[in-house]
Design a protein that fits this description.
By secondary structure, the chain is α/β, with parallel strands linked by helices. Helices cover 36% and strands 15% of the residues.
Length: 590
């Protein structure tokens, strides 16, 4: 279809007032191309096939119009979103919650494998408006009768090509066949392979086809790095960076107006010259803040996307994405506030594990790699403070008025009968007591198990299928307290462990299923914090209680793991799930 010019603002679209209010608070101002084209079509009730990459703003492209058509008084699933992975499920659910913040009593529920089924049954019974989830878990609830789609208005297939690649496409069709015939369908995919096109032809009614390309690029004068949020709180991480990094002026981006004030206050309390910049500030105060930043009387500004539009301050040497942006266009605009007039700039991005998909999208859209960074350690911070302290002392030694103080301190030392060195130490303590050289900073981030090449999306299939296992990894066999009698399949364990541990699936080795338990090979050196976390992960209604096989005190300790293929089918008691052909459904994520 022909591409119309994008609207000037979201207010040009017929979105519900509550939705417009929410996106204004978030900082959205102008629709992206996919949003400009999809929103009117979905508001009009048409089916849509959208071809767009992750990071182009497609979540808002379907969420905003479908929420505008929602009936908040009806406590039944009205929108169903199918996603290929747990991480995308959580991202989409969070986006719906943010956009619907002003809809009365709105409820969205993420459904994915590896989570306790009971935790999902209770909110379904109470009633939710939007359900977002992976195909396997959606099918579980439809079979149980716990997910009633009788009042469903719309279905979204998000990243359909990924669901095809992961073996979900038949499940997707099965779910579509269990939805009401008169429902709206929106299908989004980066590519449109034959199988995806077949789904569209079969299940969509005269869809409007929309195709956009991401063309964003960044300037080469900006060094880009990311920190994977882990162990240390983001505020403490930012503080460490401020302590050690040499910067002239810094712009810190957050998502909401309230967050600008809260973070600026916290940084000021830690001794930094900092101020917020958001859309609620009057023009005079905004101009005053920008002028202070330009003149050097202000070093750090915490801003929203909208408030920072058009900001041109040459001395901004660093941009920190404290909250990851919702799309790649916003990221490019943010980091473009540094590296101005040919100067070097640095951009740092804080990324939670479930946000790694957006990081990949940013790399793809900007066509530049974003390298991981290590947080400064407590010793780094201490060394930097000591170095600054010594610099202050060296500068003070150049002061011509020192003679008077030398006489005063010598007199004090005689009166108190203490060495002059102790007097100097007391003065040093007085000088640094407001900002101690040795401070009790939080513990360092835990070292995670090997992740291999940075690719967060797990290959949800039995271990050993597809990619070869790494040859340079030492493996340890772990026992988990869920087996065939509980309905577990290899895909359940792969999906749960890959998502919860942040492991690429080729780092999940052989899986052997027994009646009452299973074993799985994982890389050696798993941090204790991660092992404790995996012990409490739920799969098929049971806690994994993960322990190294043969560990004293563990159930079945000393019992050797019996050989068997990862894709084993149920067999006799005490044997690995059978040999021979793998069941196709066992290769998919729950």
């Amino acid at each position: 279809m022909s591409v119309p010019p994008p609207p000037v603002a979201f207010s040009d679209l017929a979105l519900a007032p509550e939705i417009l209010r929410a996106i204004a608070e978030i900082g959205y101002e102008t629709p992206s191309p996919i949003q400009a084209q999809c929103i009117p079509e979905l508001l009009a009730g048409h089916d849509v096939v959208g071809q767009a990459q992750t990071g182009t703003g497609k979540t808002a492209a379907f969420a905003l119009p479908l929420l505008s058509r929602l009936d908040p008084s009806l406590r039944a699933p009205q929108v169903l979103v199918l996603t290929p992975t747990r991480e995308l499920t959580l991202q989409v659910a969070e986006a719906f919650q943010a956009y619907a913040r002003h809809l009365p009593d709105f409820h969205v529920l993420p459904l994915y494998g590896g989570q306790n089924l009971g935790l999902q049954l209770r909110p379904l019974k109470r009633g939710v408006h939007v359900v977002v989830g992976t195909p396997g878990r959606m099918m579980d609830h439809l079979r149980r009768g716990s997910l009633d789609l009788g009042r469903l208005q719309a279905v979204v297939l998000d990243e359909a090509d990924e669901m095809l690649r992961m073996g979900f496409i038949e499940d997707v069709e099965w779910i579509l066949e269990h939805t009401p015939p008169r429902r709206q369908v929106a299908l989004f995919s980066a590519t449109l392979p034959t199988a995806v096109r077949r789904v569209a032809d079969r299940h969509l009614h005269e869809p409007r086809e929309i195709r956009v390309q991401s063309r964003t690029t960044t300037v080469e004068t900006i060094t880009q790095r990311y920190w994977k949020v882990s162990g240390v709180h983001k505020l403490d991480a930012l503080t460490r960076i401020l302590e050690v990094q040499d910067f002239e002026a810094m712009l810190v981006f957050v998502r909401t107006k309230n967050a600008t004030v809260e973070l600026a206050d916290k940084l000021e309390a830690r001794g930094y010259d900092c101020a917020p910049l958001n859309g609620d500030m009057n023009q005079a105060l905004r101009e005053q803040t920008v002028e202070r930043l330009k003149s050097g009387s202000l070093d750090i500004v915490v801003a929203t996307d909208v408030a920072a539009r058009g900001l041109d301050v040459e001395r901004i040497s660093h941009v920190v994405n404290y909250d990851i942006p919702y799309d790649t266009e916003a990221y490019v605009h943010r980091i473009g506030r540094t590296g101005r007039a040919g100067r070097r700039g640095e951009a740092i991005l804080f990324v939670a594990p479930r946000e790694m998909r957006m990081l990949r999208a940013i790399e793809q859209a900007t066509r530049q790699p974003i390298e991981p960074m290590q947080l400064p350690t407590r010793q780094d911070v201490e060394n930097r403070r000591i170095a600054r302290f010594k610099e202050q002392l060296a500068e003070a030694l150049e002061t011509p008025e020192l003679g008077y103080f030398e006489t005063l301190l010598a007199e004090f030392a005689r009166e108190r009968d203490v060495p002059e060195l102790e007097v100097a130490a007391a003065l040093a303590w007085l000088l640094q007591r407001e900002r101690p050289l040795q401070e009790n900073l939080p513990e360092e981030p835990p070292v995670r198990a090997p992740e291999g090449p940075r690719r967060p999306r797990p290959e949800t299939r039995p271990a050993g299928a597809g990619e070869a296992r790494p040859t340079d990894v030492e493996w340890v066999t772990y026992r988990v307290e869920v087996g065939r009698t509980h309905g577990v399949e290899p895909r359940n364990l792969v999906g749960a462990i890959a998502n919860e541990a942040g492991l690429e699936s080729r780092y999940i080795g052989h899986i052997r299923l027994y009646d009452e338990y299973s074993t799985v090979d994982l890389p050696a050196g798993m941090p204790k914090e991660l092992q404790r976390h995996l012990q409490n992960v739920w799969v098929c209604g049971r806690r994994l209680q993960l322990q190294p096989e043969g560990r004293p005190g563990a159930r079945g300790a000393g019992r050797p793991a019996r050989p068997g293929p990862a894709h084993a089918k149920p067999g006799g008691k005490g044997k690995p799930a059978g040999k021979g052909k793998p069941a196709r459904r066992r290769e998919r994520e729950s």
